[in-house]
């Protein structure tokens, strides 16, 4: 009998591991068990999984309706913002939601990310009346009842709930750095590539003044413990001890024991052999585990922390409340007190969907899984293919909008009614918001001043060549925009729609998805500030929308140092001017 536990975990990261697994499978006996929650159906596996000969296969399925609640959130390290992420706000649009809801397992897994408030909204329970988990039955019964409500939303209700689930308790909040995102009551598990470094960062090593003070304080405690041990030895030698002397040690009543923090004790011998910085780290309630190089004392205390039972704490903080791990230690960390997970992006971007599911599965009770990017959070909840599928869908969708706007232009149908009808029909047909359609419609009109895309027959609309001077190009774009008069303004009324339009312009200027390899993008980048000012002057973009986009983009770039900041940098002079003009206007009003 071969019992293979989690055979697919991480094998993609190392060709040698993949080779070993393939070899085991090629030689497996007639009776084998592949124990995995994420391996997939037998008939969908690659042939090498199935062994040397045909055999009867039995699939044992345990549907995950009783998993602990795992609220999702994104932590922006650049701005120290903590943003809850509802199941619906994982999706870029209704079309993507529809695609995922057709999957045979993802909708069920998404149920565990619903909060009580979101469950109330889906079941139309109006407070007061208690959270949905207390309304009827057990968690499984409730999730079975709520599953069809989550999976069968129409577009209007989907967009309404998406907006609602960004407010109130789901709105972004400022926290005190990464430490502000840690659990206040239970244990936090942090996944990263360099656990020791991150453990020291979390312990406050960066504040050297405070750290040195803690080192001095701990050294004094060790010296006092040493003194008491020597004093106790002398007393033993003189044989003049009494009951009171037995208890003397200068720390907590046991000779040779040092208390680093409540409920966390080590022997004096261990303490004297250990690195003093490691002891300070432990005194802050932080330990780490990695594939190699973990100090024996830290490993012992770490393993001891895994036995922490929440009910035994009675409201007290766990002795070790932060466990920092690398990939090799994720699967060995099974602690019932873990109620918060933090996955740093350096490790998160390397993990497969199965690994990410296992990481979220480290929550053994209701809690929160925090990611450093929405991209990795989406990958964890929606699967590795979600990003690729959405990229392909956006490219095709943008092309369809561009084709439709070109047909309007050829027919000289530029009225608000014509453009509004086009936006509405494309939104309804595609499952995408009217704001997304309108954003690509604006870019389509601007592109009439650039070279024709290869997928379109733009004869008579697009110029044969792009004007060489930036001033001439801006004039050509302005002429195209003015030809549509107030039509574009009428389909871009809301702040959120205008922000989407700026994002689409940025994608065009950077030749990013869905405008990869588009001729003219670099020229648009060169006039970014002037183009935004022109759109502001003709009332297509409002001051509020420009500032909203700029603030959001600044936060994104702070969170991702590898982000492309060229458009943002080019737009800065106009944004600065606009801010100064706004400030002057406020001063005049006062």
Automatic annotation (TrEMBL):
GO cellular component, one term: eukaryotic translation initiation factor 2B complex
Stored InterPro entries: ARM-type_fold (IPR016024), eIF2B_epsilon (IPR051956), W2_domain (IPR003307), W2_eIF2B_epsilon (IPR044123)
Segments forming domain W2: 387-588
UniProt xrefs under Gene3D superfamilies: 1.25.40.180
Region (Disordered): 230-252
SMART domains in the record: eIF5C
Pfam hit, one: W2
The protein's name in its UniProt record: W2 domain-containing protein
PROSITE patterns per UniProt: W2
Organism this protein belongs to: Ostreococcus mediterraneus
One function term, GO molecular function aspect: translation initiation factor binding
């Amino acid at each position: 009998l071969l019992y293979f536990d989690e055979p697919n975990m991480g094998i993609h990261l190392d060709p040698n591991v993949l080779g070993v697994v393939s070899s085991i499978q090629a030689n497996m006996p007639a009776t084998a068990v592949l124990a995995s929650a994420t391996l997939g159906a037998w008939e969908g596996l690659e042939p090498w999984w199935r062994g040397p000969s045909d055999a009867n296969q039995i699939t044992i399925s345990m549907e995950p309706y009783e998993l602990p609640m795992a609220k999702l959130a994104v932590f922006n390290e650049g701005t120290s913002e903590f943003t809850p992420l509802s199941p619906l706000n994982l999706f870029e649009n209704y079309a993507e939601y529809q695609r995922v809801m057709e999957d045979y397992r993802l909708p069920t897994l998404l149920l565990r990310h619903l909060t009580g408030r979101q469950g109330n909204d889906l079941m139309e329970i109006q407070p007061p009346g208690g959270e949905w988990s207390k309304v009827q039955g057990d968690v499984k019964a409730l999730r079975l009842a709520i599953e069809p409500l989550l999976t069968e939303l129409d577009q209007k209700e989907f967009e309404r709930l998406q907006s609602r689930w960004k407010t109130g308790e789901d709105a972004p909040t400022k926290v005190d750095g990464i430490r502000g995102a840690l659990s206040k009551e239970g244990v936090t598990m942090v996944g990263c590539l360099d656990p020791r470094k991150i453990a020291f960062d979390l312990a406050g090593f960066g504040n050297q003044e405070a750290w040195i003070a803690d080192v001095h304080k701990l050294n004094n405690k060790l010296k006092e413990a040493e003194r008491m041990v020597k004093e106790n030895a002398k007393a033993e030698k003189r044989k003049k001890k009494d009951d009171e002397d037995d208890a003397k040690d200068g720390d907590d009543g046991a000779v040779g024991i040092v208390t680093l923090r409540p409920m966390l004790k080590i022997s004096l011998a261990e303490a004297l052999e250990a690195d003093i910085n490691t002891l300070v780290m432990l005194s802050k309630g932080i330990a780490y585990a990695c594939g190699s190089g973990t100090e024996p004392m830290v490993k012992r205390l770490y393993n001891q922390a895994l036995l922490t039972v929440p009910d035994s704490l009675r409201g007290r903080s766990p002795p070790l409340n932060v466990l920092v791990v690398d990939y090799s230690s994720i699967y060995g960390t099974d602690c019932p007190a873990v109620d918060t997970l933090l996955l740093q992006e350096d490790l998160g971007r390397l993990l497969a969907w199965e690994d990410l599911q296992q990481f979220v599965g480290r929550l053994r009770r209701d809690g929160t899984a925090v990611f450093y990017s929405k991209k990795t959070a989406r990958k964890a909840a929606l699967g590795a293919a979600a990003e690729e599928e959405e990229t392909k869908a956006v490219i095709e969708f943008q092309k369809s909008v561009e084709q439709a706007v070109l047909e309007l232009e050829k027919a000289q149908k530029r009225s608000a009614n014509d453009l509004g009808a086009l936006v509405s029909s494309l939104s309804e047909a595609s499952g995408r918001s009217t704001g997304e359609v309108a954003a690509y419609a604006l870019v389509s009109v601007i592109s009439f001043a650039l070279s024709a895309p290869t997928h379109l027959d733009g004869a008579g609309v697009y110029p044969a060549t792009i004007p060489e001077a930036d001033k001439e190009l801006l004039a050509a774009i302005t002429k195209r925009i003015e030809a549509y008069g107030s039509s574009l303004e009428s389909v871009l009324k809301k702040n959120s729609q205008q922000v989407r339009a700026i994002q689409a312009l940025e994608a065009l200027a950077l030749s990013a998805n869905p405008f990869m390899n588009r001729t003219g993008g670099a020229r648009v980048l060169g006039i970014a500030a002037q183009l935004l000012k022109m759109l502001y002057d003709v009332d297509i973009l409002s001051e509020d929308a420009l500032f909203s986009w700029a603030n959001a983009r600044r936060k994104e770039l702070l969170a991702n140092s590898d982000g492309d900041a060229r458009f943002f940098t080019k737009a800065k002079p106009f944004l600065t001017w606009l801010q100064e003009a706004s400030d002057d206007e406020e001063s005049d009003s006062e």
